[in-house]
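Appendix B. One record, verbatim.
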Amino acid sequence: DLKKKERELQAKEAELKRREQ
């Protein structure tokens, strides 16, 4: 469960970085 949340956070961060570009 914790790993899933961590993965979701990373995915959100990646999406934010993609939007910035």
